[in-house]
Design a protein that fits this description.
Cofactor: pyridoxal 5'-phosphate
Structural class: alpha/beta
Number of strands: 11
Protein name: Threonine aldolase
Number of domains: 2
Radius of gyration: 21 Å
Distance between the termini: 46 Å
Organism: Zhihengliuella salsuginis
Shape: globular
CATH topology of the largest domain: Aspartate Aminotransferase, domain 2
Pfam families: Beta_elim_lyase
CATH superfamily of the largest domain: Type I PLP-dependent aspartate aminotransferase-like (Major domain)
Family: Belongs to the threonine aldolase family.
């Protein structure tokens, strides 16, 4: 008699095709082989817990190299935890955050900022996912009014959820404007590496030197297995760094075996791997954009500046392509879809995907 609760001894019998590449998200990609090697090396022997380990110490030096002397790093489990904890550190209990309507903290983090972070999000519509001083001012008002949550922080995403980029000048305009109003600025850098690759700038140029106060530094979307980090960029803001020591624990983001997060981030940012992988993903997105632009009836809707392509694709064609490839609707009513490229997306993957779209548009 078979037991329906048992699994085959060979796990490959119930797993997906390892050769499959999809365009739904860069979260779908595997782990870069160099990261797996770093994890295996970190597994040797014993190390101190809760960040008292050689890898987390080394990560501090890597972060200072990229973001400047005195930048302080706090590894965490995931991006939502990083964003919520960062924003909590900027706000009193009555504080609010101005962000784009499309911001990850508003669209894709359930109610974590509000329910876990205890903050109000003040959202503004944007055509391209990017805030401006003028857009911020739509919600940056009412200070001293006890009936209104106080807008004391701005959160922006680089690169944005729509695959667009802020220039250094645009970031500086935002931070100068926000600081003049007594607001501090958080950057969601889940795809910060893709932004650096596209801008062809060191990380510091459009974070620390652009006036960002605190950064969620991504890794999962660029080839690591798990983990992100918070980076306090102002070395003189000791109170901010001190608050994160306690907030990270309160938010269940303090890893006991932190070395396994830190080792991955060191392997990524302590070498050229972060930039190499991001450049590749961006290049694959450009190849995909060029391919679909030649297909009648497929209309790109946003600039392709990092590793995302947004386009209008008629629903019958989208359904046909989804028989082979997974990807997400962005605005189903407008037939707008999103395609993401990853560090392991190949030219053959892109070309086969474009060919599948072309066949679907021809009705074949």
């Amino acid at each position: 008699m078979s037991n329906e609760n048992t699994f085959p001894t060979d796990p490959s019998a119930r797993l997906h095709d390892p050769a499959l590449r999809v365009f739904a998200s860069d979260n779908y990609s595997g782990v870069h082989p160099q990261i797996l090697t770093a994890l295996a090396a970190a597994n040797e022997g014993h190390q101190g817990a809760y960040g008292v380990d050689d890898y987390t110490h080394a990560l501090g030096g890597v972060v200072e190299h990229h973001f400047g002397a005195g930048a302080t790093v706090f590894p965490v489990f995931n991006g939502t935890g990083a964003n919520v904890t960062a924003l909590q550190s900027l706000l009193p209990r009555w504080g609010a955050v101005v962000c784009a309507e499309t911001a990850h903290i508003n669209v894709d983090e359930n109610g974590a900022p509000e329910r876990v972070g205890g903050m109000k999000l003040l959202t503004v519509p944007t055509p391209d996912g990017k805030l401006t001083p003028e857009l911020i001012d739509r919600e940056a008002w009412g200070w001293g009014d006890e009936h209104r949550a106080q807008p004391l922080a701005v959160s922006l995403t680089q690169s944005t959820e729509l695959g667009t980029l802020y220039s250094v000048e645009e970031l500086r305009a935002i931070t100068d404007h926000a600081h003049a109003k007594g607001m501090r600025v958080h950057a969601d850098g889940a795809r910060l590496s893709n932004a650096a690759a596209a801008l062809d700038l060191p990380l510091r140029d459009f974070t620390t030197d652009a006036g960002i106060d605190i950064l969620s530094l991504g890794g999962t979307k660029n080839g690591i297995m798990f983990g992100e980090a918070l980076v306090v960029l102002d070395p003189e803001d000791a109170a901010l760094a001190d608050s994160l020591k306690y907030l990270r624990k309160m938010n269940m983001q303090l890893a006991s075996k932190m070395r396994f997060i830190s080792a991955q981030l060191v392997a990524l940012y302590g070498t050229g791997l972060w930039l190499e992988s991001a450049r590749h993903a961006n290049a694959m997105a450009q190849r995909l954009r060029a391919g679909v632009e030649s297909i009648d009836g497929v209309t790109p809707t946003q600039a392709t500046e990092a590793n995302a392509v947004f386009a209008r694709l008629p629903k019958p064609a989208a359904d046909a392509v989804r028989e082979q490839y997974k990807f997400y609707d962005w605005d189903e009513a407008a037939s707008e879809v999103r395609w993401m490229c990853s560090f392991d997306t190949t030219e053959d993957d892109v070309d086969a995907f474009v060919a599948a779209i072309a066949r679907a548009m021809d009705g074949r």
